[in-house]
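Table S4 entry, 4-hydroxybenzoate octaprenyltransferase.
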Amino acid sequence: MSTSKPDLSDIYHDDWVARYLPASWGSYARLARLDRPVGTWLTLLPCIAALIQAAGGMPDGWRLVIFSLGALLMRSAGSTVNDIWDRDFDKHVERTRFRPLTSGQVSLKQAIAFLFAQFALSALLLFFINPFSRWLALALVPLVIIYPLCKRFTYWPQAVLGAAFNWGMLMAWSDTTNTLPLGAILMWLGALTWQIGYDTLYAYTDIRDDERLGLRSTARRFGNQGIYWLSGFYVMSVLLWIIAGTLLHMAWAYYLAIALVAAHLFWQLKVFDLERPEKSHYLFKANIHTGLLLIIASILGTF
């Protein structure tokens, strides 16, 4: 059996970016995390679930396109902001040491110019949503900008990230119905606590490097008690989604799908291992399935 230490780097040098894009383009693709789309999916899937619930069925196709582009662009912009703020830390973290900005493939000036371009493209989408949703979109920008700084002064940056990542759920309701019912807010809060859970799994990958650099995270806050905290946040998510489903008058099949969500989250807790950081990264990515189950629950609940 091999005892070699797993490489935790999140840059794969033989992927489609390296094979098919010019080197100068590839650096920006990696800065925008186009090579690692899991974050975009984790942003988009709960948003699609909210669009379905708000529409009482399948959402308008054009609205689905706009929100999909919004998830892609804002997640990419958030990744660029993150790398700009963390450029001096990333070189000392095993997972992030090869990222374009910290490794010198992209300069700080180029990264800032790229960020402005990302925000400009995102701003174009404002013309296709209603005024209520535009204000919500503008309220998201400070969260995107300050999130990377939170790890310097609080152990709860994952809560800020959870609010930002799932902001599209609120906008889905505001743009579809021009309202924000309590059920929609509870669905968003459930997604926020879910993200605290799964992003804590991700944070355990970096916990040794974070301790050495003096950076904070929920993983550092929970320490060896992580399984109990994760269980609490996952239970909270399921309960919030059940209550929200009742307030939104979801059909009975919705609750069967939420039971599958609960089973999937329980499986994550069973597999979680503090001594296997590479397993934490795998479990983080497995939450794409949680998002897909939320969409299934929303479809079943609106029949």
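The chain has a mean pLDDT of 93.
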